[in-house]
Amino acid sequence: MISEYLRNVARCPLCHAGGASGTNGAHPPLEPAGDGLRCPTCQRVYPAQGDRGFLDLRPPAETFDKLTDYADEAFHQRAGSLKPLFLSARIKMDMMSKMLEPTSSDRVLDIGCGKGQFLYYNRPSCGQLVGIDAGTNFAPEPLATVDLARGDIRLLPFDTGSFDKAYSLDVLEHLDEEGVIAMLTEARRVLRPGGKLFLYSHVMMSSKLAVFQRGVNRLVHWLDRRGLVDNGPERERKSDHLNAMKSYEQLDAVLARTGFRIAKIRYYNVFFKALFEDLLLPVVEHNFFKKKADPDNADNEHHHHGHDHDHHHDSTKPDVGRWAYPPLALASTIMKLDVVLFGRVRTGPFFLLLEAV
Fold first, then answer.
1. Residue 2: inside a domain, yes or no?
2. How far apart are alpha carbons 322 and 329 in whole angstroms?
3. Where residue 283 sits, what CATH number does that domain have?
C-alpha cells in the first residue's frame, strides 16, 4: 500500500545527505512522476514498485561505506504469509505496545521493519503507520494494508517531525557505533519534539541470572553437534551481529548525543524463553517435523543496508502447522514471567522507551 500520507512525508535521501534544501530551509517534498516520485532539487526519481506496494527510497549505494547483511528471524519470519506472533516475538510486541502506547491518532514509524509482521499486527492501534527496511522481503499482508518503504535507516527518507512515535526491534545489533548514532539521530529528526521511540536490543553484558541461558546454549550446541537439533538458522540469524553497544554507559552517551532521554527501561532476563524457545522448540521441530522445500527460495532476496546481495539462506525451519498454535500461545504466556519476575534485574537485553528532547 502506498497512501497519500506516505507520498506527502517522503523526502529525497540524496539531497538530505548533501544538505540541499528549499527556499525556506526545509527539504522540498517529492513530486509525482508516473507511479513514483521525483525530487525537485536533484531530479532523482524514486519508483513505486507497481503492484508490489512499496516506495523505493534508497540513497545511492555509494552513500555509505559500510553495509550490513542481516537475516530474517528464525521462527516468526518464515517465508510467505504471516504466522501469528508467538514466543519472544509475542513478548517484544506486547512490551512495545505496553510501553509505547500507540493510539489511533498517532503517526508511527517502524524502523527496520523486516517482513512487516509487527506493522501488520499493530495497524489496528495506530493512525498512520509506516515501515521502512533495507530489503524487500515484505509479506503479502503488510504490503496490502500498511505503508512500506525501502531505504536506509541511517538516512531516513522522511520529512522532519513526520511521526509522533517510532519503534525498532532487533536492529541496533546489526550496526556499528557510527551506524547506531546515525540511525538514532535520524529517528530523533523524524519524530516531533516530545515524540517517543521504543527500542529492543542489547548491550554486551549479562546478569547472574544469565547462567541458565548459557547452560541451555551449551546444551543446544552439544545436541547440534550430534544431529539432534539444527541450530543453523539461529547461527545464521546472528552471523552479522556487530554488537556495537558494549555497556549501558556507552549507550547512555549515544542517547545523549542523539537527542533522547530514557523514559522507561525493562530488562529481559530469560529463563522460560531459554527453556521453551531455545531448547524445546528446536528439539521438537528437528525430530518430529521435516523441512519442506521452498519453491520460491531462489527468488528470495537476502538484503543489504543500501543495495541488493545475491546470497541466500541455506538454513530454514519447518512449519509445524496450526495444531501447534495453542501450545505456542501457552508457552508465550508463561514466557511473560521472564519480564514480570526479572524485568528490573539489569542485564544485556532491554526494552527501552525514549523521549525526544
1. no
2. 11
3. 3.40.50.150
pTM of structure? 0.88
For residues 223 and 216, the answer to whether their CB atoms sit within 8 Å is no
Helices (H), the chain: 4-9, 13-18, 87-100, 117-122, 140-145, 177-190, 210-225, 232-237, 248-258, 272-273, 281-288, 325-335, 337-342
Number of domains in the chain: 1
For 284, the domain range is 57-356
Torsion over CA: 337, 238, 78, 145 (sign): positive
28 part of a folded domain:
no
Q: Is residue 24 in a domain?
A: no
CA angle, corner 89, sides to 332 and 197, nearest 5?
A: 125
What is the tens place of the pLDDT at every residue in 212-239? 999 999 999 999 999 999 888 778 777 7
Reduced to 3 states (helix: H, G, I; strand: E, B; else coil), residue 262 is strand
Examine the pLDDT at 309 and tell me if it is beyond 70: no
